[in-house]
Amino acid sequence: MAATMLLKKRAPVLVAEQSTENAAENIPDAAPQETEYVAPKKKQSKKKLAWRVVLYFWMSVLAILFLFPVWWMVVNSMKSNTELVEQLSSMRTFLPGGITEWFTSYVNLFTSEALSGAIGRSIFNSILYCAITVAGVLLVNSLAAYAISRIRFPGAGVITTIVLLLILVPVETSIVPQIVILTRLGLTTPTTRMFGYLIPGLVSPFYIFMFRSYFVGIPKEIEEAAEIDGAGKFRTFFVMVIPLSKAIFATVSIFTFMGAWNDYVFAQYIFSASVDLMPLQVFLQQVNNAQPKDTAMVMAALTISTIPIAIVYVFCQRYIVEGVSFSGLK
Amino acid sequence: MEGIEIETAVVTESASAGEPQSAPPRKSGSRNKHFRLFGKDYRLYDTLVGLGFIAPALILGIIFVIAPIVVSLSYAFTDATMFTLDDVHWNNFYNFGKAFSDPKMWNALGNTCLFVVVAVPLQLGIALGLALLLNKEVKGNTFFRWAYFCPVMLSLAVTSFLWMNLLNEQEGLFNGLLTSMGLPAQKFLNDPDQAMMLIVLVSVWQGAGYQMLIFLSGLKNIEPALYEAASLDGANKWQQFVHITLPAILPTTSFVLVTMLIGAFRLITQPMIMTPSGLPNVDGKEVTTTMSWYIYQQGLTYYDVGFSSAIALIYTVFLATIALTLRKVMDVKD
Q1: Closest to B163 measured CA to CA, from A291, A70, A282, A304
Q2: Do A176 and B295 meet the contact criterion of CB atoms below 8 Å apart?
Q3: The predicted structure's pLDDT at residue A202
Q4: B187-192 contacts: CB < 8 A, separation 24 or more?
Q5: What element of type H or E holds B124?
Q6: Residue A106: helix, strand or coil by DSSP?
Q7: Which CATH superfamily is domain A118-283+308-326 in?
Q8: Closest CA of chain B from A5, distance in Å
Q9: B-contacting residues of A 98-137, CB under 8 Å?
Q10: CA of B284 to nearest chain A CA: how many angstroms apart?
Q11: Contact yes or no for A203 and B147 at CB 8 A
Q12: By the CB < 8 Å criterion, does A227 face chain B?
């Protein structure tokens, strides 16, 4: 108590000095000090309220700025195009249309003659490409990462260095040399271009690095125990290591899925001549260019192509934040 | 008895030289064969399995990661085109001479730098501002976080097509609203003065939420005790921000800055979709053609692989210089 009395008399600067110098001694004093501050807090409450109102005002303005285009996209996908054009110059453009028209544009999208019903095919293509890419990326990169982090063989060190170099050095390779190589391998003909599109995406130095950082943290004793029991490396990896690394497998598959679903430039070049093989993101160009111009139908297509990503963000938020902070801590 | 003991000792010794603590397995004696390479001891089984595990990634990596770099480097000094890949001749520095005297390349480089200089600081500032707003414990925090993050869920292609329609001259939302308020309709993306700035705004709108999330996780890691100590010290909010918050998130900021810069220098999707064929232009100079897009056009639209590779090489040197300078500057700061 004596100490508290003394502290009260001192200037606040000195109090702080004291608390940093011998923090341990001052911990019991923390409580009485806080009660002392109750009075000024009440005086400030009006100022705080005003501050809060200002804060909420700006946060709401920003929220509207960030949300209104997306809101407009979804709302106007649920109108007929005539309705959309009519309401364009009034505030009704931000309100949902009549319930009878809600699915008109979506039905149009699947039946329109201008698109010859190819949207269903492009959705199927997108799902197929994503499934193959995710499965392939997980297998190829996790095996490679396991080899360089946990198995002793000649060349492992060199490969690790190359992987790290490829991540650190920004090389503007662009897609031109990739197309050159695919052309030389005969993977850009109408029948083979699907493989030409999928295969280059399977290996990624960055995912190898991510897997490696995770595997390094698994205690070696677990694998050694498995080996003593007679399990080979292959079984150890699939039965012991994968179940222990669910988090990193989830993170990588989510990022791969989003990358594959959203890919545009590469897919747009490879499939520019074969509408049947186009993934959804590339097919959007066809919808956008369809004549006569149907903005509501375009909005319907944009909404459909966003839904899977939105679902992933809503349900897998934890892994995404983990992945983001992982890349942030690198 | 003695002989057996010596044998086990030898086995343990060689095993510990190869892989420490690898215990002798009961049935799989074949796994304990060893060999030496460059004075180092390896277990044959480990080598085979390790090479097997890495083989798919190694083969794909050599073909689709390393080879493109080699191709890009070597084709820059040749007259290669997409149709004559079997008949390529060296032409030394011809492509580089052509590139440096090509006004379109300088135009593309200028456009890219303009985008980077405006978009990166703007997006960094907005992302940090949003993160600081959300870092306060207020009601509805989750809603606001989702609201700012919402555009990130749109892909670059969806974002571009959406804004292209919003900014459409005849049937776009913005011209609809402008005319209803009695204001003149704008040409937006067809106006050379507006096109690049609109691409900047659209890119910032789409991307800021992602960096906001990174900043938020950085802010959450700051010890609350630091702020308590500072406020006891009599430091006001601004002083707390400058002396605690800013230094604490400096590593996050430098990481975000570097990734944003690299991303911004690779801008291609938005201008490609929103201003097809590089329009609009001033005196024949397209205002939205970026470096990545120019490299793409030269290689894949005009099939001039040699020239395209030469520009790509010049651009890589340019980017590497910036990246290295930035790392140096940041190391000094740290």
Answers
A1: A70
A2: yes
A3: 93
A4: B189/B164, B189/B274, B189/B275, B189/B280, B190/B279, B190/B280, B191/B280, B192/B280, B192/B281, B192/B282, B192/B287
A5: helix B103-135
A6: helix
A7: MetI-like (1.10.3720.10)
A8: 17
A9: none
A10: 25
A11: no
A12: yes
Residue spans per domain, chain A: 50-102, 118-283+308-326
Contact B293, B108 (CB under 8 A): yes
How many angstroms separate the Cα of B291 from the Cα of each of A70, B21, B269? Answer: 30, 54, 12
How many whole angstroms separate alpha carbon A257 and alpha carbon A133? Answer: 8
Closest CA to B158 of A245, A298, A276, A95: A298
Identify the residue whose tokens are 């949300």.
A67
How many Cβ atoms sit within 10 Å of the Cβ of residue B62? Answer: 12
Which residue among A70, A177, A281 sits closest to B68, beta carbon to beta carbon? A177
Q: Cβ of A200 and B168 within 8 Å?
A: no
Q: Are A243 and B120 in contact (CB under 8 A)?
A: no
Q: Which amino acid, A96? A: P
Rg (CA), chain A: 29
Complex ipTM value: 0.81
Domain B102-330 has CATH 1.10.3720.10: yes
A278-291 residue pLDDT tens? 999 999 999 998 87
- Buried-exposed string A62-81: b where 16+ CB fall within 10 A, e elsewhere: bbeebeebbebbebbbbbbb
Instruction: Domain ranges for chain B, please list them.
Output: 38-70, 102-330
Residue labelled with tokens 């999928």: A198
How far is Cα of residue A198 from the mean position of the Cα atoms in its chain? Answer: 20
List phi, psi (to 5°) of B34. Answer: -120, 160
- A260 falls in which pLDDT band (50, 70, 90)? very high
- A156 touching B (Cβ < 8 Å): yes
Q: Name the DSSP letter for residue B241.
A: I
B186 part of contact set with chain A, CB < 8 Å: no
CA distance linking residue A188 with residue B194, whole number of Å: 38
On chain A, the residues whose CB falls within 8 A of the CB of B308 are 174, 176
Tell me the sheet residues that pair with B34.
Answer: B43
| A327 and A101 Cβ atoms separated by less than 8 Å | no
**Amino acid sitting at position B248:** A
At B125-179, the pLDDT tens digits run 999 999 988 887 777 888 898 899 999 999 999 999 999 999 988 888 888 888 8
- Residue A105 CA to residue B99 CA, distance in Å, equals 48
Instruction: Give, in degrees to the nearest 5, the angle at Cα A293 between A288 and A298.
Output: 40
Distance from C-alpha of A79 to C-alpha of B319, rounded to nearest angstrom? 46
Angle at B270 between CA B252 and CA A134, to 5 degrees: 65
Question: What is the token pair recorded at A3?
Answer: 């100490």
Q: With beta carbons under 8 A apart, name residues in chain A contacting B67.
A: 177, 181
pLDDT band for position B280 (cuts 50, 70, 90):
low
